[in-house]
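Summary of Year 1 activities. Much of the first year was spent building the evaluation harness for sequence design. The harness presents a backbone, in tokenized form, and records the residue chosen at every position. We chose the following record to illustrate the format because it has been used consistently in internal testing since the harness was completed.
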């Protein structure tokens, strides 16, 4: 198959072009903006009419709607969407939930098939009547390169060098979170939680792109006197290295799809503390590969982290169980094969080239 990409301008374009892929950058607003959205859809439609793809496969909620509308207008034969977590979630105003559900039902009617990373999303779609032309959502899971994320890739000497590079002592107990800095990722709760941790010999590493909340988080860190205990590292391209020195992984989100960062941490044999939200609880098995705690409760988050910090054997046991589960459930090769099966099945049902319906 000949694979091309179209997405909002970003640093990924250069990397993909270096690897020989065709990339077209078309701006797609993350928020609902009628004027911008119409322009994006029109440009996407023109692009699809030019390249005449047999399949358009969309991802993320906003780009998923814009891309499917454009693909339908361009009469693309097969339109597939992958749900990376529905945009509606617990705690959202009911009116907003209903709006997003209606939008998802509309998008589903444009779709030849819909794939889902989460089993819970498959069930939610079934109960809400979100169904594609070929039926209910197809569960494909989420996966990572289990050979890239292996603890035994790093020697003790290498881990000490990584710590030194980050200004950490060999004895520092490392807590890590990887998440975009926005309100849905629970950073406020996370900072409140680590403020309750005793002792001096720990450090929280926060990795992720700022989406408008960094100033608030930095202010809270200063307010709680945690300037020397919390490191805001921004986006990184050395995630396996960071995870190799991590003792506990934390994700305090209010909403997730299937969080890849947690899968990567578990693959590195790191016990995880996550909130009890759709997606996160599908990756972490409570009291077996980590702890699942209520969202928006910093005290519960802190209690779980403290329990793991105090028990070396538990961390080791949870870490080993997490790695084994990732091998069984979250190997990206299995996900690729499921997607390929869907492509082949749908192409066999559709004529090549543009359809006339």
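For this record, the design step produced the sequence shown next.
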């Amino acid at each position: 198959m000949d694979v091309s990409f179209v997405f909002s301008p970003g640093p990924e374009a250069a990397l993909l072009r270096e690897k020989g892929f065709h990339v077209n950058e078309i701006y797609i607003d993350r928020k609902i903006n009628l004027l911008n959205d119409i322009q994006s859809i029109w440009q996407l439609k023109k692009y699809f009419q030019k390249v005449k793809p047999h399949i358009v496969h969309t991802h993320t909620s906003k780009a998923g709607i814009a891309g499917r509308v454009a693909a339908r207008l361009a009469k693309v034969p097969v339109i597939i969407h992958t749900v990376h977590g529905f945009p509606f979630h617990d705690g959202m105003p009911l009116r907003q939930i209903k709006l997003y559900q209606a939008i998802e039902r509309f998008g589903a009617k444009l779709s030849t098939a819909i794939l889902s990373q989460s089993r819970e999303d498959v069930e939610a779609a079934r109960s809400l009547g979100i169904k594609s032309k070929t039926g209910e959502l197809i569960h494909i899971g989420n996966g990572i390169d289990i050979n890239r994320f292996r603890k035994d890739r790093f020697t003790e000497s290498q881990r000490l060098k990584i710590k030194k590079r980050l200004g950490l002592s060999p004895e520092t107990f490392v807590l890590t979170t990887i998440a975009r800095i926005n309100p849905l990722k629970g950073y406020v709760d996370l900072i409140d939680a680590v403020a309750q941790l005793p002792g001096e010999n720990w450090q929280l590493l926060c990795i992720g792109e700022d989406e408008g909340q960094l100033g608030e988080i930095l202010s809270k860190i200063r307010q709680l006197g945690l300037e020397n205990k919390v490191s805001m590292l921004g986006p990184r391209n050395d995630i396996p290295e960071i995870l190799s020195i991590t003792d506990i992984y934390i994700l305090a989100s209010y909403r997730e799809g299937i969080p890849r960062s947690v899968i990567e941490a578990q693959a590195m044999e790191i016990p995880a503390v996550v909130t009890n939200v759709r997606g996160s609880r599908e990756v972490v098995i409570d009291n077996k590969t980590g702890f699942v705690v209520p969202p928006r409760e910093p005290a519960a988050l802190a209690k779980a982290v403290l329990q793991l910090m105090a028990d070396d054997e538990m961390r080791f046991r949870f870490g080993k169980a997490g790695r084994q589960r990732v091998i069984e459930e979250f190997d990206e090769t299995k996900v690729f094969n499921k997607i390929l099966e869907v492509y082949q099945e749908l192409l066999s049902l559709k004529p090549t080239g543009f359809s006339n319906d």
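Residues 34-51 form the longest helix (18 residues). Quantitative recovery figures across the full test set are reported in Table 2.
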